[in-house]
Amino acid sequence: MKILVLNYEYPPLGGGAGVITQQISEGLAYLGHNITVVTTWFEKLPENEEKDNLKIIRLKSARKYTYRSNVFEMLSWIKHSKKFLAAYCCENKLDVCLTNFSLPGGEVGFFLKKRFGIPYTVISHGHDIPWYFAKEMFFYHLLTYFRIKKICKASAFNFLLNADMKKNADKFLGEKDTSKNIIIPNGCDMDFFKPGQHKKSGTFKILFTGRLVQQKDPFTFLGALKQLAEKQVRFTAIIVGDGILRNDMEKYVKNNFLTNNVTFKGWMTREQILEEYQSASVFVQTSIYEAMSVAPLEAMACGTYVICTPAGANRDIIFENENGDTFSTGNSSELSEKLFNFYNTKYKNGLVVSSELIDKIRTLYCWRNRIILKYQEYLGKSCR
After folding, report:
1. Model pLDDT for residues 80-120, shown as the tens digit of each residue
2. Whole-model pTM?
3. Mean pLDDT for the stretch of residues 64-85
């Protein structure tokens, strides 16, 4: 198949959704399909890249930061994408379009279907379909409600990451369209993220990764670290990522005498993050909401214990007290207690997550051996 992939964010831009798009695109290319990705250009990035069956086209639409975007920038990308693809599709035959997010990706897919008759599918990453994150996205969804419904009804399939997202999409679109709302979970690059028990740090090392924004609730993490230090636990905390809360977080660390415990490392390469996962004693995620975060999967694939909120699909991948634990969202005291108990009952006793559990996660959530094949199946059905 000749597949067009649309996402305004593609690595090194953006967060988890960009990484997911990259994995799907590379996986489909590996299977022999011709993949063209249309995304956003950023300084120092090539406008065009081509390798094997994968071509990446970066359009010079508005973009100020690598790690976040805004509505104006998304609208800019929609405008540039429509203009570019109106000419591109006159000269290049495409079988199907795989769009990311109902808006902005689905908007461009909808345009291409009307203009050229190209079928499209929508991958929802959580917050783009009303009313999955009703409180956080209320006014945005209020303004875009009917456009999103039109886009999702005109798609061949809508891909959701977990059962709650499908339930929400079924209700949003109505009973007639439930069969086109398909659950396909996110995966992990199991060829890259592997256990490295011999790399474990000699100290109690706590790892946090992600965008430093309100959704990830990093101050609950810092609050738990403060309480852990008050309990006289010796630890090192590594924070990987960047965002608008970083300056305030650094002030908090300084004001609460955690400077010797906490290190901010900013954005890192995949190779560097792999080293952090493998050497960490425990991985922590404090997100208020998620659809299906890739980071806990990556940590688990590396054999690292995970303590996280039950946000999104986290509940599906945690086997309590075996490969991880959950705690109540926003509860720094409970997180601190979980870390304290882990330190005393597991870390001190040389816990090694069982190879059986690691293998189970690696089997269920492997991109190329399992999940990419599902995308291939439904994209094929979309073309018929």
Report:
1. 999 999 999 999 999 999 999 999 999 999 999 999 999 99
2. 0.86
3. 94
- Terminal alpha carbon distance of the chain: 12
Alpha helices in 241-331 (DSSP H): 246-255, 270-279, 295-301, 314-317
Interior angle at CA 183, CA 181 and CA 156, nearest 5: 35
The DSSP letter of residue 94 is -
pLDDT at position 224: 98
In tens, the pLDDT along 223-236 reads 999 999 999 999 99
Residue where the block lists tokens 């990093």: 218
Check residue 59 and give its pLDDT: 98
Q: Transcribe 14-61 into DSSP letters.
A: SSHHHHHHHHHHHHHHHTT-EEEEEEE--TTS-SEEEETTEEEEEE--
Domain boundary assignment for the chain: 2-187+367-383, 197-364
Residue 137 pLDDT: 82
Q: What is the DSSP letter of 371?
A: I
- Antiparallel, parallel or unpaired: β 54-59 and 48-51: antiparallel
Domain 2-187+367-383 sits in CATH at: 3.40.50.2000
**CB within 8 Å of 117: residues ≥ 6 apart:** none
Provide the angle, in degrees to the nearest 10, between the axes of the packed helices 16-30 and 372-383: 70
Q: Can you list the alpha helix ranges (DSSP code H) found in the chain?
A: 16-30, 71-91, 107-116, 134-154, 163-173, 218-230, 246-255, 270-279, 295-301, 314-317, 332-342, 355-364, 372-383
Per-residue pLDDT at 126 = 83
Q: What is the assigned CATH class of domain 197-364?
A: alpha beta
Domains 2-187+367-383 and 197-364 share a fold: yes
